[in-house]
Design goal:
The complex is a heterodimer of chains A (209) and B (386). By secondary structure, chain A is α+β, with helices and mostly antiparallel strands. Chain A has seven helices and eight strands; from the N terminus they run βββααβαααβαβββα. In chain A, strands 1, 2, 3, 4, 5, 6, 7 and 8 form an eight-stranded mixed beta sheet that branches. Chain A is globular, with a radius of gyration of 17 Å. The longest helix of chain B is centred in the first third of the chain and has 14 residues.
């Protein structure tokens, strides 16, 4: 059984690519937070909670917003049948480091729940689920590099064994101002299938080249 | 479809270094939770359950040089080694896959970098590589970091991978250490109990953290089964509350979906469940949410316990060691008393196991919930339970 990529989005420090087209350039060479804010404005995202998120959640969230923009159809799917499966390399090392700074010095000890909550990598999945009311299968896998073989195998299994109907699947990572997001909307059924690419490792590899 | 057998296991916590030592202590009703004043863990006295460092050091020397491995790596290597001693599974075979679950991995390296470890060692894939390299496994290990449901998620992922036939054996190992990182975070949330935690009790006031590691070996190879009536994985599912990143759902709908989907995979209705091993962290909101989810699933008359009163909340290990305890509840036909419980403190009437019980147990559901709004449920039963 084949499942199809109905939309995809890649974010890296230089550009935003949607379905193979460069939609937005970081021509001003903005640092992470400014670049994300520019994308946020460009895509007319309105979600105040975004500004509370840590960097890992921000990039994963922005990629999900771009993919789901104007997608009315997904709102008709049973929330319990929409999955979110993400991979990540450096877990929450950026926020972990910030958090450790708050507990290192005993004379200046101020551990904060608002920081601590972002020290788990699956929280980025939680943010996407809250925003879109997705309640299906969700797991965060850690791999050194994005692993098209594993993610396609896992997501296709979930779809083919009828556990979910739609899946937001991919990768988000942030470490030391190096960052990337690769996100796919993968679906079982599609009206105009000829335009869509099946969710296979070789196709994923071609897309991310 | 092939049956997924539980082959063997190991638990390492404050209660001991074998499943037997741990399960016997659960049967006795004794806790491993004690007060700690260790400044490397907490700035104020705190109840926690810790693995004995001297014992870990002594036991590990048979396997390797403690200088080469972090505390968590030592715990994992020891736990997997002990589990493997009881079976003939070849870790060097392409048929065997490793799954590692942890929330924070080698986080102690970030707090206090030790010179002899490369900076990469704090990354979870580096930890998993060290562990799998020790066992010379040719397959890349799968790492799951799904907050407090990590262990249950790893078991579900392992079982579903085995169902595809790609691998025959899965070695599922989960663990977390207690350093300053996690206690200080939960303290900042005011979520740590002033006394050993009291799941589902009216006077519960928060969690007790625990250090632990567990290994559960699953296989589709019936030749590896020693038991006449082995316990098998029947179904499992993850879900999300889509409600709040740090607070559980007020309705229990997310966890209910996970239970319902796990039972649907097992092709079971909710009529014949013998036991629920709950997450039962002893926070006000978690236990209330779980009781509601259990009721939504129509399971309010099924005996429920939480094992957190014995070994605390062991994070990445919790789902694994509590599933192992469930498997042994079936094997020994008994239910462990839910330690710390005396009077029901949730608004939905559920049946908490308030005394050790001996009687036929053929199956159980294990549930878990965590930050990020995630939930998971698995269902295990005897092969000949139907």
């Amino acid at each position: 059984m084949e499942n199809y990529i109905t939309k995809y989005c890649i974010i890296n420090p230089t550009e935003v690519i949607v379905d193979g087209k460069i939609e937005f350039n970081n021509s001003a060479n903005e640092p992470f937070n400014e670049f994300m804010k520019s994308i946020y404005k460009q895509y007319d995202i309105k979600y105040p909670k975004y500004f509370k998120m840590d960097n890992l959640c921000k990039i994963a969230f922005i990629a999900s917003e771009i993919i789901l923009k104007d997608n009315e159809q997904i709102k008709t799917v049973d929330p319990n049948r929409v999955g979110v499966i993400l991979q990540n390399s450096h877990s929450t090392i950026d926020t972990d480091t910030n958090y450790v700074d708050t507990i290192k010095d005993k004379s200046n000890y101020f551990p904060s729940p608002a920081i601590f909550v972002y020290t788990l990598p699956n929280v980025m999945i939680g943010e996407i689920c809250i925003r879109n009311k997705f309640q299906g299968e969700n797991t965060c896998f850690i791999t050194k590099e994005f692993d098209p073989d594993f993610i396609s195998e896992h997501v296709n299994n979930l779809l083919n064994s009828e556990k979910i109907d739609v899946c937001l699947a991919g990768w988000a990572d942030y470490v030391d101002n190096k960052y990337s997001a690769i996100l796919f909307l993968v679906e079982k059924i599609k009206e105009n299938q000829k335009d869509n690419i099946s969710f296979k490792p070789e196709n994923i590899t071609k897309i991310i080249k | 479809m092939n049956s997924i057998y539980t082959i063997t296991d190991n638990i390492i916590t404050s209660l001991g270094f074998t499943t037997e030592a741990n399960f016997n202590t659960l049967k006795e009703g004794s806790s491993g939770i004690a007060q700690t004043f260790d400044p490397k863990i907490t700035t104020v006295p705190m109840y926690t359950s810790l693995i004995d460092s001297e014992m870990l050091k002594n036991e590990f020397t048979q396997y390797g040089d403690g200088f080469d491995y972090t505390r968590l790596e030592q715990m994992m290597i020891l736990s997997i080694s002990k589990a493997l001693k009881q079976t003939d599974i070849d870790t060097k075979s392409h048929d065997t896959i490793f799954l590692i679950s942890t929330t924070k991995g080698n986080i102690d390296l970030l707090e206090n970098r030790r010179q002899n470890f490369n900076h990469e060692r704090v990354y979870l894939w580096s930890l998993a590589n060290e562990v799998s390299k020790f066992f010379k496994t040719p397959n890349k290990p799968i790492i799951i970091s799904n907050a407090c449901i990590s262990g249950v998620s790893a078991i579900i992922t392992a079982a579903h991978l085995l169902q595809t036939g790609k691998y025959k054996n899965a070695i599922v190992c989960g663990g977390d250490i207690i350093s300053e990182f996690t206690p200080s975070g939960f303290q900042s949330f005011k979520a740590i109990s002033a006394n050993p935690c009291k799941p589902f009790d009216v006077s519960r006031d928060g969690i007790t953290l625990g250090e632990g590691v567990g290994t559960l070996i699953l296989s589709t190879d019936s030749n590896l089964v020693n038991d006449k009536n082995p316990v098998i994985f029947r179904g499992g599912a993850n879900s999300n509350d889509a409600n709040h990143i740090s607070g559980p759902s007020r309705t229990g709908d997310g966890l209910y979906f996970a239970i319902r989907n796990a039972l649907a995979e097992a092709e079971k209705t909710n009529k014949n469940i013998d036991y629920i091993s709950a997450h039962g962290t002893a926070t006000q909101y978690n236990d209330e949410m779980e009781a509601k989810a259990i009721a939504l699933a129509g399971l309010e008359n099924v005996p429920v316990n939480s094992l957190k009163g014995y070994w605390g909340h062991t994070l990445g290990a919790a789902g694994i060691i509590e599933c192992i305890a469930g498997v042994h509840s079936i094997k020994e036909n008994c239910l462990i008393k839910s330690l710390g419980f005396s009077e029901l403190g949730v608004t939905v009437p559920i049946k908490i196991v308030d005394n050790f019980y001996q009687g036929e147990i053929r199956n159980f559901i294990k549930t878990a919930s965590g930050f990020g709004g995630c939930n998971a449920a698995v269902y295990f039963s005897e092969l000949n339970a139907d």
